[in-house]
Amino acid sequence: MVDRSPSRPTRPGTVGRAGLPREQVPSHFDDGAADYDRLVGMNPGYHDHLRASAARMRLPRDGAGLRLLDAGCGTGASTAALLGVAPRAEIVAVDASAGMLERARTKPWPASVRFVHSTAESLAENGVVGPFDGILAAYLLRNLDDPDAQLRRFHDLLRPGGVLALHEYSVADSPRARLSWHAVCWGIIVPLGRMTTGETALYRHLWRSVNTFDGIGRLRDRVRAAGFDAVHSETMTGWQNGVVHTVLGTRS
């Protein structure tokens, strides 16, 4: 298992060996919320790939009668992806960053979509309880202190037959993917972050946290260990091929 603790105490805004300390991540997303949609809009395939992960959940009947959880919804891009494949579902979208949720709520949503300010670990305390028919967690797991415990919580939130989809960066198993990730981060993402927001801590965190996160094989193993069946993964097209993946599992 990868050691994700910083090698020494990390000052606020200082990016350690594995990225920002977990407790600082939401506040940095708060600070970057105003520019987040514009930045991800410059990423070719960003929204298409979220829609691909949502479609891979194979939710039936346009979502009619289904209850879905978008865990780590940010400004609502993953929520829109779920809504696109399941327009008749009830969707509960949750994020730990108040700033990102504020941006999400400014967008037009049907009454079937509800946003909740909560960490992934404290859903029940904030009124988010199961069962759900599907959970989409995009770019969430590597930002948690205990991903294994969270996967078990996701398993318990699903009804039998419910599906989990993790949409996540994973480059550790592929030298080509690691090289692509390094080039894109330092050639595009970090410079754009500096130019747009005047700071780079969040974007350097993105680079480091992905570098220290699981390989895709290890991530599939985590999902199996949490009790999921039929666990498999699919990657994306374009420069994100081998870099961004959907890991899917079903609660039996």
Any overview of this molecule?
This is Ubiquinone/menaquinone biosynthesis C-methylase UbiE. It comes from Pseudonocardia alni (Amycolata alni). Pfam families: Ubie_methyltran (PF01209). By secondary structure, the chain is α/β, with parallel strands linked by helices. It contains 8 helices and 7 strands. It has a single domain, classed as 3-Layer(aba) Sandwich (Rossmann fold), CATH 3.40.50.150. The chain has a 7-stranded mixed sheet with strand order 3-2-1-4-5-7-6, sandwiched between helices. α2 (46-55) packs across α3 (77-85).
Give a nutshell description of this structure.
The protein is of the alpha/beta class and 252 residues long. The protein has one domain: 3-Layer(aba) Sandwich (Rossmann fold), CATH 3.40.50.150. The chain has helices at residues 25-41, 46-55, 77-85, 98-105, 147-157, 175-197, 201-211, 216-225; strands at 67-71, 90-95, 113-117, 132-138, 158-169, 229-235, 244-250.
